[in-house]
Design brief:
Length: about 375
């Protein structure tokens, strides 16, 4: 059918759901009769996704989340595979979530369904042995960072650097407009706080972030804090972690608007992950915190081959973003690092200069590239199979 494409998709994290929404909009420009089935969140749902489960049932961080959610995830993956076998999509796109997606992708590819994976696992940083599984699982790896393409090609995995959608999306977002949008008073100093989007991540970071806010507020009563929540579930989890009666007098809570909050800030305190990259794209001076269970952290230390956890430090010529891991992520260290960004112009300017080239290197009209490659993969494979 002309203009038709049936897409199978799994985006089991909030960040993957956002990426998926942009990809689907670009695909619909090429294939107006696009239909999508699989797993996603509100972004993909708004684009017409026929969803098989709640996104929060699958998003995990650390061993404790894996143990708790593994039985359901295994059943769901098998059910999803059977569903796709009965009614095969023209192409399957796995977005991030490699622990869930790579096995599913291997099954689907073995059944003759073209498979692409968007967002590389950090195999260049830890668990490099997964490259063998990726080679079996995908027809094309779509990577967001330029150094990843060469990494995969050297190891026999077809890969294409597509750019990062966020770099395109934030191009018109600037500090002055963001502050007007959020009605920030002229001259007001703002610290944006992003404790993550995964339930376990928020449980680990929300208490220490709250303590840090209070410590900074005592030092500077004129500071304003912006704390955006990715969803109602994230908001609920945050207040469960810190207590409904937590004293946060200088904090303004936002529903969504994370990028606007990052653009409006003077500095940001973030969980390591997508928020750190988006902060870099917006030229936002930042401090990164990372906390997981003791067992998860021990395992990560054993398997890691890099010193840094945040993507901006991998993309800058000289790593400049302060990272505080586990017990080092306490209110004293975090508040001190934020205060330095606010009050030491030379330090702040050095970080801004280091961040300045990241957006230019990633701005490549990513969603257009992804849609084009999915079309080529789909119809190239269909022709080979005579479908």
């Amino acid at each position: 059918m002309e203009g038709a494409l049936r897409l199978g998709v799994v985006a089991a994290e909030t960040s993957g759901d956002k990426l998926g929404g942009g990809v689907v909009r670009a695909l619909r420009n090429r294939y107006p009769k696009l239909t999508i089935r699989g797993i996603g969140g509100p972004e993909l749902a708004s684009e017409g996704l026929e969803s098989l489960c709640d996104i929060h049932d699958l998003s995990v961080m650390g061993l404790e989340d894996i143990v708790r959610k593994l039985p359901r995830a295994l059943l769901l993956r098998r059910r999803l595979f059977q569903d796709f076998l009965k009614d095969p999509p023209d192409v399957f796109l796995g977005i991030d979530s490699p622990d869930f997606n790579l096995t599913l992708e291997s099954w689907l590819r073995g059944a003759g369904i073209p498979v692409a994976h968007l967002v590389s696992p950090t195999v260049w940083a830890w668990r490099g042995y997964r490259v063998r599984k990726i080679r079996r699982a995908v027809d094309r790896m779509l990577v967001l960072f330029p150094f990843e393409e060469a990494f995969y090609r050297e190891r026999g995995v077809p890969a294409t650097f597509v750019g990062h959608p966020a770099a395109d999306e934030v191009a018109d977002l600037n500090r002055a407009n963001a502050r007007r949008c959020l009605v920030v008073a002229p001259g007001k100093r703002v610290v944006s706080i992003l404790p993550g989007s995964r339930v376990s991540e928020i449980k680990h970071l929300a208490p220490v972030f709250t303590q840090t806010i209070n410590k900074l507020a005592l030092t500077d009563p004129d500071l304003e804090f912006l704390l955006p929540f990715a969803s109602a579930k994230v908001r609920e989890t945050f207040f469960e972690a810190v207590g409904e009666s937590a004293s946060l007098p200088q904090v303004r809570f936002l529903d969504g608007q994370a990028r606007t909050a990052l653009a409006a800030r003077d500095a940001a305190l973030l969980a390591s992950g997508t928020a750190a990259l988006e902060a870099a794209l917006l030229g936002c001076p930042m401090v990164v915190a990372y906390r997981v269970s003791a067992a998860s952290f021990w395992l990560a230390r054993m398997l890691a081959t890099t010193r840094y956890v945040s993507m901006p430090n991998h993309l800058m010529p000289t790593p400049l973003v302060p990272e505080f891991l586990q017990d080092q992520a306490d209110q004293s260290n975090l508040s001190g690092a934020i205060a330095r960004l606010l009050n030491a112009p030379d330090h702040r300017n050095e970080m801004l200069q280091g961040l300045s080239g990241i957006r230019d290197s990633l701005q490549r009209d990513a969603n257009y590239n992804i849609a084009r490659l999915l079309g080529e993969l789909t119809f190239g494979c269909l022709e080979l199979m005579g479908r």
